[in-house]
Amino acid sequence: MKKLINKFKEGKIAEGNLILILIAIIILLAIFSPKFLTANNIKNLVRQTSIIGVVAIGMTFVIISGGIDLSVGSILGVASIISSMLMVSGLPIFLAIIVAMVVCTLLGVINGIIVYDGKVPPFIATLGMMTAARGIVMLISNARMIAGLPRTFSNFAQITILGMPSLFFVWLLVIIATFIVTSQTVIGRNLFAFGSNPEAARLSGINIRTLTYFIYGISGFMCAIAGILMTSRLSNGIPTAGTGYELDAIAAAVVGGASLSGGSGTIIGTVLGALLIAIIRNGGNLLGINPFILQISVGVLIVVSVMIDQRRKASV
Amino acid sequence: MKKLINKFKEGKIAEGNLILILIAIIILLAIFSPKFLTANNIKNLVRQTSIIGVVAIGMTFVIISGGIDLSVGSILGVASIISSMLMVSGLPIFLAIIVAMVVCTLLGVINGIIVYDGKVPPFIATLGMMTAARGIVMLISNARMIAGLPRTFSNFAQITILGMPSLFFVWLLVIIATFIVTSQTVIGRNLFAFGSNPEAARLSGINIRTLTYFIYGISGFMCAIAGILMTSRLSNGIPTAGTGYELDAIAAAVVGGASLSGGSGTIIGTVLGALLIAIIRNGGNLLGINPFILQISVGVLIVVSVMIDQRRKASV
Amino acid sequence: AAGQQEAAGPAGEKPYEIAVIIKATDSDFWQYLLVGALNYEVENPDLVNVTTYGPPSEADIAQQVTILEDVISTNPDGIVIASTSSDATVPALEMAYDKGIAIITVDNKVNTDKVHSFLATDNLVGGAMAAEKMVEYMKAEGIALKGKVGIVSAMAGIQVLTDRDGGFTARLNELAPDVEVLEPRYIDNDIVKALSATEDLITTYGDELIGIFADNNHSADGAARAIGEQKLQNKIILTGYDSDPEEVAAIKAGVLRAIMVQDPYGMGYKGVDSAVKVIEGGSLPEFVNTGVVAVTKENVNDSDVQGVLDPYSMKKY
Amino acid sequence: MGDTAFIELNQIVKDFPGVKALKGVDFSVYPGEVHGLIGENGAGKSTIIKIMMGVHQKNSGSIKINGDEVIIDNIIQAGRLGLAAVYQDLNLAMDLSIGENFFIGNLPKKKSGLVNWKYVYEETEKTLKDLKIVIDPRKKISELSPAMQEMVAIAKTVHLNSKLVIFDEPTALLTNEEVEILFDIIKTLKKRNVAIVYISHRLEEIFDICDRVTIFKDGEWVDTTDVEEIDEDQLINKMVGRNITEMYNIGHQSPGDDVIRVKNLTREGNFQNISFDVKAGEIFGFFGLVGSGRTEIMRAIFGADKLTSGSIELNGKPYKPKSPIDGIKKGIGFLPEDRKEQGLALALSVKHNINLSSYKDINRFSFVDKKQENSRADKYIDKMSIKTPSRRQTVGNLSGGNQQKVVIGKWLCNDSNIFIFDEPTVGIDVGAKREIYKLMEELAAAGKAVILISSYLPEVMGLSDRMAVIYEGNLTAVLDRKDFSEERILKHASGIK
Ligand SMILES: Nc1ncnc2c1ncn2[C@@H]1O[C@H](COP(=O)(O)OP(=O)(O)OP(=O)(O)O)[C@@H](O)[C@H]1O
Ligand SMILES: Nc1ncnc2c1ncn2[C@@H]1O[C@H](COP(=O)(O)OP(=O)(O)OP(=O)(O)O)[C@@H](O)[C@H]1O
Ligand SMILES: [Mg+2]
Ligand SMILES: [Mg+2]
Predict the structure, then answer these.
(1) How many structural domains are present in chain D?
(2) Is-contact A234 C221, C-beta < 8 A?
(3) How would CATH label the architecture of A2-27+39-315?
(4) Quick one: closest CA in C to A142, which residue?
(5) What residue's CA is closest to ligand 2, atom 28?
(6) Are both D296 and D210 inside the same structural domain?
(7) Is this complex's ipTM strictly greater than 0.85?
(8) Which residue's CA lies nearest to atom 11 of ligand 1?
(9) Hey, where are the domains in chain A?
């Protein structure tokens, strides 16, 4: 423990700054709004963050690799529509979920193929996928919500376990699994190497083709999880689900310390980044701040927190 | 002329591929829709492309420098609201336009300051500005459209000169001016040097601070022009004006051959890129294609045209 | 289904080419309008050929103008348009009118005389109705008309929404002067954000919060879910706008008390019909009110509202 | 040499986060003198010139120019004071033309304010022609070989007409011919009474061209002396703190079986009909002028590039590499010529880089075996004597020589049996060079095959058992050690039959 604190002081914990900023904001909010630290609000907060939090984790893989994935929101929409249409058509819940996961993972892999084999910059490849996948969603759903989901499915998102919403536990599971993958496995090591220097990674015998497929596939898979959670939470398949999430997810990862030039980023950082943004929004709402001023503040705070982080990094 | 054709054949004209793709699409559309090559439709096409075309040119500066500007849409909104509110309040049209231009250029420069002095990655700096500037627009306009603009102002966008819409000439002016700046002036060439190798630019004594301010300032200025044109065309100050334009502008520049890692990109390429995207949409509308299928096609075509471009570049 | 074939008959010959342009392709409401328009085509295959268009988002006004211009280039016999902006489409519409194309505007008034007919609901009135229903249910639940009422708005800067919110606020101020109407919370037409915004409203104002008005279907879906989850439907009276399956379910569950339902199906159907009448030389009233109906638990199962609640059930293709 | 120093630095201190790069050094240069600056990798040579040039700010100390104290807080100002530098890392804008790079930061304008392109290209062409370099200045600079790029950078700096010109390791990428040109340039500058700072790890160059030499060690000033008063051994001793004699003196093995047999290898546009074999325990040199195609041959064998035709046998078995994965599986280790671009993930730790190719062997169900990861890292840090505060240090913060050792460590760690070293000692100090040579000796002694590509003739001649000479993608000779002679090798290397 002492070791940890020392490490922290020496700035050796990558997420150190962010934790400090987060604590400062939490203290401020707790002082100004008595509602902020209530059990109920905390529950709301994690529920509000879980879905985008899962997307942001997939995004973190892509960003560590030096890429970007603009298609997450649309792929989330695909998951929502496919899973709900299948359920409504009578497929068992379990199967519907599996199919949605497979489809979304494949869409992610297609991103990877376009990027690796097509040599198209990730920004453009996933921008194309973003546009096309949303079009597909609209086409197959006729731009309509899908209602009439099985009760057991829609109930899932309402459950609380040990006082915490079920969504939170899914997020937690994702966090733990991806934390292990990024920090303990060969794939994690290769991911960082690839992001830091793709050519060196290739010349070191890393199979960067499959790695690229894997990275974008993971992002697609995370969108599937998020889309299914959202569908359960809203008891409907929503064709517009996830619109604009790409920017939120990227912001979470980058505020969490990931660099868009690749090679750095952590799962914990992204989790903190997502929380920071959500807390600012939640706090602003609790304080009854004018929504436009709140919007301005969110913009300013994202910039300022990254700026502080850069300063502190430079001074260590 | 012969020299030009030879250069073209040898793939030495950067925009060569794009011109070929564009011609192919134009021929296809002309075959399938007799309305496509009518004077009226061509007029529509340039009118539709002019506004995003101007934004994309500002974006090209930023992309050549190795940055990105997500705030263009919001800054365009600022221009629309500020200029229209000032006009409605009785300020002379001329002054209202100047004020909007100054404000937007300043917002751009602020982006530059955050990027250079704050050392915040451009993606985050301009993402913050995107959120904040839209908030400002909503706040000052109360999220309402501004109506009651002077007739002379709204008429401007309707005028045609020599059979072409006035907007086109503004765009043309911007194209010519920026073409000269990027290819014939010191600051323009410094822009390429900076984007190609920032460290080399710095070590060669290029003042990269003012250069950064200039680059983002230009982007802001272009948004002002586009915002004013849009206000005239829509006869209203629109608080949501420009939403989502960042992606269209980036797509135009990248389809036009600019690389997001900086150092390459041309004004002509961006113009062609913007036209390509607009032509696909226009053609789809003329053919009465289902809007979702059109959306899918636009996504696919952006990716495919970049892919073809990459292939041909690699094979030269 | 919709007329994909390219060449229309020479002007004056049937079937007439009718273009239907909606504000955005991303919502049930506008899809309902298309159902009305396309049903008309199915019923009168020899009379009209309907093609549908729309930008992906209501925020993108310029894109709609672009589409309109493209459509005019194709020289249809008639255009039915729900124009997002009242001014932006004027020049193009006037040009089309002068070319002899039948122009029918729906939903939103366009500031020009060169329009053959206008079919719409009055959103100010719809907002006011939502306030009336809210007060009615507050009284029924025995809630004192004192405290705060929130507005969950789909998006900032969209005229029809501003009208609904304005109509609601004005009427509520009249009916319950002691109630404070809070600043709208905007949710980017995202149900999850509507849910979060409502949760935060509940957390912030607690018992003081006695009502919420949600100004479209997505905002009402999210608000209903938040209130339902916390079982506060007897303390917070929720009224909404538009109709989708989730709203109908919430009405039936008593979480959402009333929705103001317009008749997008009718706008589409009657819009095309009006265009045909213009083309054939008939004359039409300048304004046709397509009406707004308040649907509550009491009338939600009535057969005559089924059509407006879910026009998809009337889809004939 | 004049009486007052043109530039005089006193007690300069420079701290980087975690590193004290300069601990109070003195340094001065007189007009018309060529002043050599030497020291091990990381001694602070580049740092002090960057302080002179206003790229870095000193923490304390003073700078005088012509006896007056000055503050140099940016590059533009350094330029005004008459200082110019050719930096160690090639700082060129690769997307731009040769002419534009020539005038980067300094583009001439016409009266209208627009760039005077005619002048840009004519002046560039003329200046380069004076240096016997004939190229079209409108070409993109990335189309030039690294040597030519370096020459452009040198010519550009000299063209500025400065009073002090600094060369930071200019010859690392140059061939003999170009080194001659460079020395002529320096002599001309000297005649014009320009002060010159010359940094190099090739000590014989110091004796060829310098008047005085200053030695740094670990951020401290060690000595400044007239070149005539010191010999190479003394210099090395002052630099590394011990004696290194006979740089290239290593043990040679009696060769074993053929490990690699190459027949008629061709890659269109790069090389043709290359055939050779390398035996176990052998150091096989590859000499050729820069750009002759050696790198491409090796990349193709490693699997990094595709072959057009030809066959390869490894240990008697046919081998058709499709990607580096195949080469690595067969035990080939490849030390690329550009370690920063191709060899290292600079942002990652020493440990991570050493293990980069071996994770496939040290995992259980794809979970990294961290004990092994750490112990392997420590083993090779120790074995290679990599100077690093810990295995967790970011590789980017190490000095050049130590970075190079990390790359070698990576291939040792992967248990390779064929080592391809492409320009392994570029930019490496004498001490580290000697260590790398000893390592090659050890590898050969352990029965591995070592292929050494180098453009530095003394090095290939000194180390190789046999040597292949390449000229424009063709193998012009394979020589035995006993037949090595400078004249003969250079003849083959320049295509003279
Ligand atoms: N920007 C920097 N940040 C942190 N440390 C640095 C930086 N630049 C140099 N150093 C460190 O300062 C020390 C001196 O480096 P410098 O580049 O001056 O060495 P050098 O003598 O030029 O070595 P070489 O012969 O390898 O070029 C080294 O320990 C190096 O790691
Ligand atoms: N990026 C490149 N673009 C174009 N030509 C190149 C490129 N890299 C190398 N070449 C050319 O390919 C040929 C072989 O170069 P290569 O680098 O293999 O030579 P080398 O003998 O290994 O020399 P070096 O000492 O530079 O490593 C040369 O003609 C060179 O100019
Ligand atoms: Mg150095
Ligand atoms: Mg080489």
Answers:
(1) 2
(2) yes
(3) Orthogonal Bundle (1.10)
(4) C31
(5) D291
(6) no
(7) yes
(8) D21
(9) 2-27+39-315
